[in-house]
Design a protein that fits this description.
It is built from 14 helices and 12 strands. The chain is of the alpha+beta class and about 450 residues long. The protein has 4 domains: about 50 residues; about 55 residues; about 150 residues, Nucleotidyltransferase, domain 5 (2-Layer Sandwich); about 60 residues, OB fold (Dihydrolipoamide Acetyltransferase, E2P) (Beta Barrel), CATH 2.40.50. One of its GO terms (molecular function) is nucleic acid binding.
């Protein structure tokens, strides 16, 4: 008969044999096995009575007290195979409980499904292969863009975002710019600076950030973002990467910049966004000398700018349509704008015109390329609770809220100071008391 024993039980067997053969005492055996002398006596009695099998654990090989019946296991697996094929263990557990009244623990379901090849654990799944992609042939053919939010100044300033423009063919940094957040206006400023320096590339390659792509489409929303509209007007395509690995060149550049750029700015004692942006062209030049390479084709696919400066000013704006009311007004961002009551503007009643907001905060109203004169009728001050705030205005809204909190705190301090001061009547009483004190002392 085969008896299965653990290492601990085998050690006990050897020590108890020495006790039985009078080579050691029970007290010494208790010290070796770290047991009491009474326990050694009981084990020795069991060993003499049942032999080696008496030292093996009696529950070994027996079904556990919480073990499920084989019929229940077969029923669960058959239900999963017929009705819940492809379900994960967690969802299968929910459906077995709600639909079939089988309350089996989810980990038990997971173990059964794994043993019967109905579920493959994540650790054992084949990893998705990411095949390498050859770089583009020409400079300006594909520009990878991304924003990297990091503690770039190592605590000398607040965390901020670095916008990175890198050429796919050469690996050269073409533009870097620090900004507070990855917003549409910041990408407007960076893209304009880029195309004014190099020209218009064939395409940008980005992730699925909401600046570049409408991720939650609805019937009343536009199917193109403000940044996408700008690129469309400039005849520049934009391609969206399906994974971070697909735009690996800019991701690796971000990792390198988070090491080298931070240390370079530390040596230069740069502690603000403005100082860093003024110094970045120097860093880009040295970075490209070290890491840049020549493209396979020497042709430069950047196209020259044909748009005038004023035209670029109007293109790089946040544009939204607004309907002109009968009173020649439009509403935008809590402001009522009165259009100039000319005969030409009277024809715009009921028409949709474009409201332009520039990155510097100025606004304009345009219809078919014609700027329309306006005046502001009323601006609703303050923010209402639960108000929906656009991402492009989040920074200014938070600054406004912080200012309100600071003003409220100052008012509370002044009110507490006034409360702590005695009233005028109390002050007069104190003065009179002080005048009487010398008289009282002299009388005493």
């Amino acid at each position: 008969m085969l008896i299965t024993m653990s290492d601990k039980e085998i050690q006990r067997l050897a020590v108890l044999q020495d006790v039985r053969d009078h080579r050691i005492t029970q007290v010494r055996a208790a010290e070796i096995l770290n047991l009491s002398t009474r326990q050694i006596t009981r084990l020795l009695q069991k060993f003499n009575q049942d032999g080696i099998s008496g030292l093996a654990h009696a529950s070994r090989g027996q079904p556990g007290h919480h073990c499920h019946d084989e019929a229940v296991k077969s029923q669960c697996l058959s239900i999963i195979s017929e009705h819940l094929l492809g379900f994960g263990p967690t969802l299968a557990h929910e459906k077995l409980s709600s639909m079939f009244a089988l309350n089996i623990p989810v980990e038990t379901i997971r173990r059964w499904m794994t043993a019967n090849d109905l579920w493959i654990p994540r650790s054992k799944r084949l990893k998705r292969p990411y095949q390498p992609r050859y770089n583009r042939d020409c400079l300006g053919e594909l520009i990878q863009i991304d924003g990297s939010y990091h503690d770039w100044f190592e605590g000398r300033s607040a965390k901020c975002c670095l916008l990175v423009y890198i050429d796919d063919a050469t690996g050269k940094l073409l533009h870097l710019r620090f900004c507070e957040a990855e917003t549409t206006f910041d990408y407007m400023l960076s893209t304009r600076a880029y195309i004014e320096q190099y020209g218009k590339p064939l395409a940008f390659y980005s992730d699925k950030h909401s600046v570049f792509r409408v991720n939650q489409k609805s019937s009343h929303d536009s199917q193109i973002t403000q940044f996408g509209r700008i690129l469309n007007e400039l005849n520049i395509d934009i391609i969206f990467a399906n994974s971070p690995q697909a735009k690996g060149r800019v991701e690796r550049a971000n990792r390198t910049l988070q090491d080298r750029l931070i240390k370079e700015m530390r040596l230069e004692d740069i502690g603000s966004i403005d100082e860093a942006n003024a110094w970045l062209p120097y860093f880009i030049e040295h970075f490209n000398q070290k890491f840049g390479k020549c493209a396979r084709n020497s042709k430069n696919l950047h196209r020259p700018l044909t748009e005038a400066k004023t035209e670029l000013d109007d293109i790089f704006t946040w544009q939204e349509p607004r309907k002109v009311t009968k009173s020649l007004t439009i509403t935008y961002d809590k402001c009522i704008y009165l259009l100039e009551p000319t005969e030409l503007n009277q024809k715009l009643i009921g028409q949709y015109i474009s409201f332009l907001e520039y990155p510097d905060g100025t606004v304009a109203i345009m219809y078919q390329g014609r700027k329309i004169n306006y005046s502001i009728f009323n601006k609703l001050a303050g923010l209402q609770q639960n108000e929906i705030v656009e991402n492009k205005r989040l920074g200014s809204v938070l600054a406004h809220i912080q200012q309100q909190h600071e003003e409220l705190e100052q008012q509370n301090k002044r009110s507490r100071a006034k409360k702590s001061m005695p009233s005028r009547k109390a002050q007069k009483a104190i003065i009179e008391q002080r005048k009487l004190n010398p008289v009282i002392d002299s009388c005493g």
